[in-house]
Predict the 3D structure of the following.
Amino acid sequence: MSLQFRGVHFPSPLNSGPSTVRGKQSRAALLLAFAAFAAVLTLLAGGPGALASTQDKLDETQSKIADQNEKKGVLTDEISALSSRIDDYEAQVSALRAQEQDAEIRLEAKQAELDKAQAQVDEAYHQLKVLAARLKRSLAVLKQRLVAIYKAGDSGVTDLILTTKSYSDLIESSSYIEQIQNRNESIVGRVRDLRDQQEAVVIRLKKAKDTIEAARDEIASEKQNLATARKAVQDQQAKLRQVKSDRQAKVDSIDSKVDHLEDIEADLQQKIAEQIAAASGVSVLPAGPMSSPSAAGLIWPVDGPITSGFGGRSSPGGIGTTYHEGLDIGVPEGTPIRAAASGTVIIAAYTGGYGNYTCIDHGSGLSTCYGHQSSFAVSAGQSVSQGDIIGYSGNTGNSTGPHLHFEVRINGVAQDPLGYL
């Protein structure tokens, strides 16, 4: 015989539990368990109103927990969206800073060009000043020459011929006068050309200076715009950080509320268990501390010594061996049993040698099972969280004393629980 739940195969508990030598004892325990279970059903169906009231409160508390977690999920999505927006703004800030650096480089280049042009202008003005001085001296010489000519009267070529004593004197005099005239004209012409050139240089450099200054103003304006944009982005980023902080504060508040509600839920579950235990005649002990999850993500279901390990072991009376598919953990009857991980309850029923037997499907082929319970705290199809109380240890089924039989299965095949705890 085997059990099949949601595709997870479990071997027959009659074959996987302790030896069946104690058949009469098992049948007696079975009858007692059925009697207790019937009493619980009677209590749930039409018993005292205290249990129904407590169950209603538990349902209400669980509903509140679900609502708070839903709110937390919405806020978490909002925070994720805000974080994405912050990343976008940070990227924009980086881009703006890169543009600002480029603008500063261009500004420095333009400033260097402007300084060079200014130096050229200064040099041109110096040259113009030197040439102006030379021109002034040349004009003074010409003025003196003109005055001398004016005082001497008209000294044309005729006068030159008449006053010359010889032909050679005439040639020399005319050549001298020609040289003076050519020299004067050359000086005047050279100064005029240099003056025109300097004026052209000054005009050209002034235009260049105006152009450079305009570019400099434009870059300065661009730099100001970039600085303004960057500040706006940083201000927005600060606002987003504040919003994120506010949202996180709300999430923390919700977490606090959930923790409080979960404490209430645990208390209510304890009360229900006590009421069920009272109906079945089993005392319920307070829940012990919850252990930290292992590397595999499971916690210990109860806190107690291992009284029997996983694998082969001797049969009662020393005749042959049996294969033990879990760990036996020694704890008093009525000890609360915690879910080793979150999941869905797929078995919560009296199951042959296992007695009151609960199995939880954790997904990905992993399941855990809990045998020999005195009573249940969950039902098949119920979702449980890690650490929730699912039942209470006992001595039901093929058992020689109060303890918890704990199993870990992968796709229905029993594994050594110590490898997962």
Summary: The chain has five helices and 14 strands.
